[in-house]
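Lab notebook, bench 4. Still working through the backlog of constructs that have no structural model yet. Next entry is a single chain of 436 residues. Request: give me the structure tokens for it.
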Amino acid sequence: MNGRGRAVAAVLLAATAVLGVVAAPGAVAAPGAVAEPERGTERQASAWLPQPTGPYPVGTTSLQLTDDRRDDPWKPGQHRKLMISFWYPTTRPATGDDRTPYMLPPAADHFGSAGSVGQSEHGFEPGRTDWKGIRTHARADAPAVPGGRRPVVLYSAGFGDPRTWGTGLVEDLASRGYTVVTVDHTYDASEVAFPDGDLATSVLPALMEQPGLDMGALLRKVLQTRVDDTRFVLDQLAGLHHDDGRHHDQQLPAGLAASLDLDRIGMVGHSGGGSTALQTMHDDPRLKAGVNLDGQLHFPGPDGRTGVFLPSVAEDGLTRPFLLMGTQDPDSGSYHRQPGWDALWQHSTGWHADVTLTGSRHGSYTDAQSLLPQLARQGAISGANLTADVGDVRPDRAVLATRSYVASFFDRWLRGHDDHLLDGPSPRFPEMIYER
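Model written out:
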């Protein structure tokens, strides 16, 4: 991706590095295959998410949360407010227009516009994609499936990404019987749409253009804000569970609050969201297990000095299980190549494993892996930008591997069901390099 392309993701990732698709049903495109756009054609590119693989239909609902005890660190003088979404098993499958939109219209318009964090990170042509037309596989506000309490998994997207950018993985977990809570980190995410019509856009691009920027300090502030957000969400989940889902006059769908098993909570995140998952595990014992999808744990040293800053999770390690999933991005790979991951590995006493997806890049564990190849075939993203974002791994294999390893991990540590995929290298996934 060029110039300011990948403005947040690349800059944040590169700053730390100085220190050490699924196609249409029935068809899979070759990696990197790009169709030239037809001249004079103004039709927007369209795309769809892969189907969930579990036995349950999926429901979803969204909720605004306001932390009355915390000022917003990016907007002093106002309380911190967040949007979260629940994704959960239901008995009412969604079809056609009943499927919830991937993004609300104001968020979709901004995400696809020139200069948005989403557009600059991923390099798709501004205005060329119908982001409003993409649908999930979930029914809005459907009742939760009966049958008792279910484990909860939190999801945090990468620095600059909206909470929707992991919907394919999130829906799949919900279809397998988990309740997943996705968190938008306001003013960090490319954009966050609130029920009152407010659209909060990311402050990160402007901050990174400031002269004399201390990148390490900015990264530490982003991570701490995300950890604080996550712990606040955990507090709110406890309140929702105990008051049967009523919260500031907002009512959760029938059965959802009662289904939350707050003794079995895990967290998965991509990039900065993966860093957030493990740091929150370190800081908050309510998280029992965590998956880090290519999120680095080392930052530039204090005040920009030479050296590395390691967050406390890397310095102290973890006593509870975690899984590292790396890519073959130049700044990623196995735990041996990353000082933060290596320190975490050496200091941890809980179960841990590390896998690297051959042929992948930093975006391969997100919806970029399934959506961007479709856009490339319609000329809405260049072949070079596509490869920079998701590499040359087969999209369908990347999606299947991500879903399988994440589900296997949480099944093992939140449900006590072990399919032994994480015991070692697997003939089912020869593209996964395993280290234990």
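Notes after review: The two ends are 33 Å apart (CA to CA). The longest helix spans residues 215-242. Flag for follow-up if needed.
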